[in-house]
Protein: Transposase IS4 family protein
Amino acid sequence: MLGAWRSHSDYQYFLVENIQPIYASDKNRVIQFSEALSKLYNLDLDVLKLVLEPYYSNTGSPAKNQPEVFRSFVLMSLLKCHSITKWVYTLHHDDLLCYMIGVSPDNIPGVGTHYDLINRLWLEDPDIEKDRQDSLHPFKRKPRKKLAKNQKLPPRHPGIIQKFVDLALQGKIFESRPEKLLQQIFADVAVRPSANDGILGDIEKLTISGDGTCIKTGGSPFGIRTCDCANKGIFNCDCHRKFSDPDARYGWDSYHETWFYGYSGYFLVTYNEELKSDIPIYLRLVEAPRYDGVTAIIALSEARALYPDFVFDKFIGDCAHDNYPTYHLLNKWNIKPVIPLNKKNKNNSKYQGTIKINENGIPVCMAGLSMVYNGFMKDRNRIKWRCPFATGKVDSCNCKDKCSSSDYGRTVYTKPSSDPRLFTVIPRGSDEWKGEMKKRTSSERVNKRLLNDYELELSKTRGKKRWSFWIMIHSINIHLDARLKKSKFDFISMLDGLLGRAA
Structure:
């Protein structure tokens, strides 16, 4: 059962009362943790109790210090400590860190308590998980064939994106997924407080970008042999083996142009222009060879269910998302797609109209010039284009007399329903399109923050459960960064004020 839960206000009082004496005797040491203190002081975990209560029984020994253990993980992430064992040892030798997580030096949560919280938040049958961990799995060699620069692994199953789109339109999502509780905690502890603080902007008109990233596991791809092939002189067998990370797979890293062993992370991110901050709102870990275009359908479905009060207005993705089923789904959900055309799909167009268009879906006039976007007509669901000469985009035109005698110039219309891939609601090449495309890198910057700033891969973690947990913890810290930047709260300044008033 869930034990006594110290409220956020009680934690704040505890923190200030215990930090003041240390600050008075060793000011520089407390200042060293100024940023971490400011973040933890503002991290309200009261909502976490409501989320966790259903997952604890009403009988048995109470689980103690659950908010303190969760706060301990957040501080681990901030201080870039990658080993729970080393972290607990550090707590036993540093009273300041103990007070920061909300415990006294004689009541430090043990290593097992930390691991127990991770296990409890993963909604998978422990017996099934243990059976998969202990069983033997096929050994797969690292692929030798390399792909071209910036080329991604194609979907392994033809038509899989359309199948997922059909399921999404029927409202079917993966409700039994083991990471569901982690996603809910992230939403309630980090995303919704940020939304309340205005960090996400207008939640009824959100622009989100989606992108995947490669995550190398700490487990070995060679596994442990249990066969006797070596005794028979066979040292290169393909027999089943035991793996420390049985869910890891080989995937292609298109940026570094190499194969990696691990997982692919897929995140939905929004960008705060005022703070110049990239804010993740949805996190998912999938198999390494999973195509981003497939994961995007799952991500969007689960995100809409996770945030029913949010309205996603625009979705920005790379060319891996350029396929007709994705456009069809986005249009059904009234989400404007901002996706560059995939060069490999150059001839994959459904448009059969009489208007000549270029490769970006922009009508071309008689003179061979791209026509000028003149707005989207909602009442008739069509895009208006005007003559580039009449709108002043070009100084002269040899076809003016042949084209139209009107000073207004020739006008043509394209309908997204004719070809949702070419005729997007926000026309390709327009100023609005270019402005939105600049936001696509926000998802890439979140990937960078997780991998580099918070040193995700240095933890040498094994298993989807622990990778998913640490991605959630690091992402909570990204939110705390943005909220601190907006509020400009400083724990040390507050402490100076309290000490000044006391004097």
